[in-house]
TrEMBL record:
InterPro entries in the record: AAA+_ATPase, ABC_osmolyte_uptake_ATP-bind, ABC_transporter-like_ATP-bd, ABC_transporter-like_CS, CBS_dom, CBS_dom_sf, Gly-betaine_transp_ATP-bd, P-loop_NTPase
Annotated region described as Disordered, given as residue ranges: 395-419
Entry's family note: Belongs to the ABC transporter superfamily.
CBS domain location: 278-335
Identification of the protein by name: Glycine betaine/L-proline ABC transporter ATP-binding protein
Keywords: Amino-acid transport, ATP-binding, CBS domain, Nucleotide-binding, Transport
Pfam family, one: CBS
Length: 419
């Protein structure tokens, strides 16, 4: 079961919302709805977020992404549709239940940090636990643990105005993590940071995710950030989903002209991976086979080498034609002493940009192995060059006009003005 499921969710601002919903279901565009005097910030959106996934919602200003994330934790009520957290429809919850949801299941990291200026770093990080009446020593100990996770050990007694923007956002992340909710919502969490710090925060998030395995919904207007962080990406325009897929799926098979234009100039070498360009390994011999079998495979595949694998497909090395042929003439029955190392395999998730040097330095195709060392593919130099020829990118960000929709309404549901 998915951790989050949104089904036909719409958020319409204006008096003719019922009529607007009918128009939305009929495929009306933003201009048509605007002429009715309504704004559909989110229009018939459906998606699921799986456990341990980073699900990125990507869109320009006015695309509806901020409205959408506020509906995911009940700060805004949908005009239509349902949102389920762990199978429970939160649109049917009252204020008390929603507050418990935000305390126990769903944490949020905001764009502008939202730290208390009069509280220390440690007190800020412990705040989520304070709202749940966790005893002071316990919550401070937990806050220290997560401050250490985000690299802020030793800064516990400082105040927010003594920290840089990146450090303040680290406090915000520590606060969300210390709540120990399984679901983390991040609304443009890194957009206020300069590019270098932003990259550091992206690295931190990926490291934390590898360690903690949270379910994360990440909102961004930055395409490169979306492609780097997202296990899957949902692209929004005028409140509608244009496409949902992995970065590779969106780059290689855009759903429509808008998506194609958006991703036209993305640096694909930073998004596509070894898995995307590798070939199936064909010249492969069993480590328990003899030189005669190795020579036969190389003859059939018309190569002067073959990769050697163990019975469970783990890469053992490479054997070359000339020494194997000599071993056959000498009557040898094993590959002992013929298997050479130095193959330097790469991980299937290695970005294409990081494959240039290994492919240039190796006279052989670069082997691709999984985390268990099993050979799953090879990358000949010609294959990499052919893939680059199909990419044809400049590495610059695409030029797409921002939507001109009115600003999104963000009045929280179930939260008083002084909350």
């Amino acid at each position: 079961m998915p951790r989050i499921r949104a089904q036909h969710v719409s958020k319409v601002f204006g008096r003719r919302s019922a009529e607007a919903l009918r128009k939305i279901r009929q495929g009306a565009d933003a201009d048509e709805l605007r002429r009715m005097g309504v704004t559909a910030a989110v229009a018939d959106v459906s998606f699921e977020v799986n456990e341990g996934e980073i699900f990125v919602v990507m869109g320009l200003s006015g695309s509806g992404k901020s409205t959408l994330i506020r509906m995911l934790n009940g700060l805004l009520e949908p005009t239509a549709g349902s949102i389920e957290i762990d199978g429970v429809d939160i649109t049917a919850m009252g204020g008390k239940e929603l507050r418990r949801l935000r305390q126990e299941k769903v944490s949020m990291v905001f764009q502008h940090f939202a730290l208390f200026p009069h509280r220390t770093v440690l007190e800020n990080a412990a705040y989520a636990l304070e709202t749940r009446n966790v005893p002071k020593q316990e919550r401070l100990a937990k806050a220290r643990e997560f401050l250490n996770h985000v690299g802020l050990a030793g800064w516990e007694d400082r105040y927010p105005d003594q920290l840089s923007g990146g450090m303040q956002q680290r406090v915000g992340i520590a606060r969300a993590l210390s709540a120990e909710t399984d679901i983390l919502l991040m609304d443009e969490a890194f957009s206020a940071l300069d590019p270098m710090i932003r990259r550091e925060m992206q690295d931190l998030l990926l490291d934390l995710q590898g360690e903690l395995g949270k379910t994360i919904v990440f909102i961004t207007h930055d395409l490169n950030e979306a492609m780097r962080l997202g296990d899957r990406v949902a692209m929004l325009r005028h409140g509608r989903v244009m496409q949902i897929g992995t970065a590779e799926e969106i780059l290689t098979d855009p759903a429509n002209d808008y998506v194609a234009q958006f991703v036209a100039d993305v640096d694909r070498t930073r998004v596509l991976t070894a898995r995307s360009v590798m070939d199936k390994p064909i010249a492969v011999v069993d480590a328990n086979g003899g030189p005669r079998a190795a020579v036969r495979v190389m003859r059939e595949q018309q190569t002067s080498f073959a990769f050697v694998v163990t019975r469970d497909r783990r890469l053992a090395g490479v054997v070359f034609a000339e020494p194997a042929a000599k071993a056959v003439r000498a009557g040898r029955n094993t590959l002992d002493g013929l298997v050479e190392g130095g193959t330097h395999p790469v991980d299937p998730d290695t970005p294409v940009a990081d494959l240039f040097l290994p492919c240039a330095e190796s006279p052989l195709p670069v082997p691709v192995t999984d985390r268990n060392g099993k050979l799953i593919g090879v990358i000949p130099r010609v294959t990499l060059l052919a893939a680059l020829g199909h990419m044809g990118n400049t590495g610059e960000m695409p030029v797409v006009r921002e939507d001109t929709s009115p600003p999104e309404e963000t009045t929280p549901r179930g939260v008083t003005a002084d909350a």
